[in-house]
Amino acid sequence: MATTNLSNYNFDDVPSAKGMKIAIVCATWNKQITDGLLQGAKQTIIECGCDKQNIIVNKVPGSFELALGAQFLLEKDPTIDAVICLGSVIQGETKHFDYVCQTTALGIKDVSLKYNKPVIFGVLTDNNQQQAIDRSGGKLGNKGVEAAVTAIEMVTLKNT
Ligand code: DLZ
Questions:
Q1: Of 43 and 3, which is predicted with more confidence?
Q2: What does 3-62 look like in DSSP terms, one character per residue?
Q3: pLDDT at 83 over 80
Q4: What residues contact 81, with CB distance under 8 A and at least 6 apart?
Q5: The pLDDT value given to residue 2
Q6: The domain 20-159 is classified under which CATH number: 3.40.50.720, 3.60.21.10, 3.40.50.150, 3.40.50.960?
Q7: Using CA atoms, how far apart are residues 52 and 142, in angstroms rounded to an integer?
């Protein structure tokens, strides 16, 4: 089965992000990949109408730290509507991959439920670097775009 292109949206159907305040926490591990995710997410939020000054970007060392990075932001600024967590975990030779992926996903979910706000799992979990390249602005689109659209849709849902 062909993998869906992660950027394949009809932006006429995506709600406006005007008036929203959206934070992005981006891991610097696998920086080449996460830079692509960050670029895709930021561009999408802006194109959907969010003011540039209402986009906050913080960096954390690795995906494992994304949940705490999101929590710091939501604790400090209650006017943030959503946090997008961006990371790239690539399978290595040890079990580290499994621990990082599972802890990251559960941590992000926990922060989301704790603050009752969208905290989006924009984390690639790939078997190799080529798969990550393909999904961070390559031939299969950009997970950052998908994460940004999800954030906007969830904020809209909450405010409806
Ligand atoms: C240690 C580690 C490894 C091996 N691989 C990745 C990875 O593929 N992607 C990622 O985002 N982070 C990785 N890390 C770093 C961990 O996320 C974390 O920063 C460290 O274990 C320190 O807590």
A1: 43
A2: PPPTT---TTSSPP-TT--EEEEEE-TTHHHHHHHHHHHHHHHHHTT--GGGEEEEEESS
A3: yes
A4: 20, 21, 22, 117, 118, 155, 158
A5: 54
A6: 3.40.50.960
A7: 20
Residue 65: how many CB atoms within 10 A of its CB? Answer: 20
Give me ligand 1 centre to Cα 99, in Å: 10
The residue to mutate among 35, 37, 59, 64, having the most atoms of ligand 1 within 8 angstroms of its beta carbon, is 64
Planar angle of CA 154, 19, 142, nearest 5 degrees: 50
Set 96, 109, 139, 158: catalytic member? 96
Domain boundaries, the chain: 20-159
Q: Which residues contact 107 (CB under 8 A, 6 or more apart)?
A: 64, 66, 67, 68
